[in-house]
Amino acid sequence: xxxGVVFTDLEDGLFGPDGTSVLRMTAGxxxxxxxxxxxxxxxxxxxxxxMRSRHAxxxxxxxxxxxxxxxxxxx
Length: 75
Fold this sequence. Notes:
The chain is mostly helical and 75 residues long. The protein is 63% helix and 0% strand.
């Protein structure tokens, strides 16, 4: 699903309909997801939910590393 993302000149990167770069939009979503999961952990989850949330944080960390790689791959 593209969430309204349109392809523009590939030399300039990919941009959404409001001109925001896809990487910036993705970074914003990753940050929001990390905050939501961290808040759940801070609220004191049962052990099984806490473990799932910690696995989710590990996946978010991986997504952040991929995003950083993508943003610097053009350098």
